[in-house]
Amino acid sequence: MPKTLIRGSTIIDADRTYRADILCAAPQDGGTILSIENEITPPVNANIIDAGNQYIMPGGIDPHTHMELPFMGTTASDDFYTGTAAGLSGGTTSIIDFVIPSPKQPLMDAFKEWRGWAEKASSDYGFHVAVTWWDESVHRDMDLLVQEHGVSSFKHFMAYKNAIMADDEVLVNSFTCSLELGALPTVHAENGELVFQLQKQLLAKGFRGPEAHPLSRPPEVEGEAANRAIRIAQVLGVPIYIVHVSAKDAVDVIARARNEG
Asked: Fewest C-beta atoms under 10 Å: which of 76, 119, 125, 230?
């Protein structure tokens, strides 16, 4: 099959927007971009696409997905095929999903399970791996995941008591290991004990619908957890990534920590 020439497009890149032609290799050669120039002379037998008045941009990366996630008696409705196919239709060409071991499940066992599910993915994918418990075998698996399987970030749920919640001991040990490995610790910042107690109070009062969700999670529970994770990371000297920030209380402590360096 011939090479493909995309002509007259407006390219939106990470640093600028400009008009150019794009020459791509033939599909059997990987279809990769060979050249981006103001004007490219078509190769012999090239497949020419007129992209005048069209935008071309790099594929999106969604760094936070949960495909076919089993969680507290439920399973996410999208699997790795349907979820990535839907993403591709909207321009998302790569995802980073979460391997979430059950309590006491070896990290490598969970990683292999998720890798098996992901074989049917339509797009590129990578993994964060959650640390949901701690002993020396977790340390060994984290090292193996970084050194041999390309994992570069580890997730910590500060919520979901009696399921996958990481207490301060787990955070300190895992953050320290992440620092040793050059990996990035990430956290879901909610005070799991506060949420658990508020849930019990609401259930006792008969609140069982979705309206109880925000009532069990006032902004303070996110702000407290974000601040605690930041200060633990600060003491250990490790960078930290706080995912899906949703409350001003958390934004404020993040801004303060950034201003402190």
From this structure: 119
How many structural domains is the chain composed of?
A: 2
CA 29, 35, 40: angle at the middle one, nearest 5? 115
Cα angle 110, 101, 236; round to 5 = 115
pLDDT digits (tens, 9 = 90+) for 22-63: 999 999 998 999 999 999 999 999 999 999 989 999 999 999
For residues 129 and 155, membership in a common domain is answered with yes
Q: State the CB neighbour count (10 A cutoff) for residue 225.
A: 24
- The pLDDT, as a whole number, for residue 257 is 96
Q: What tens digit of pLDDT does each residue of 180-199 get?
A: 999 999 999 999 999 999 99
Q: Are residues 65 and 49 in the same domain?
A: no
Quote helix, strand, coil % in the chain, to nearest 5: 40, 25, 35
Range of the domain at 131: 60-259
pLDDT recorded at residue 192:
97
CATH of the domain at 41: 2.30.40.10
Asked if residue 199 lies in contact with residue 216, where contact means CB atoms within 8 angstroms, the answer is: yes
**73 with 176, same domain?**
yes
Q: What is the DSSP letter of 140?
A: H
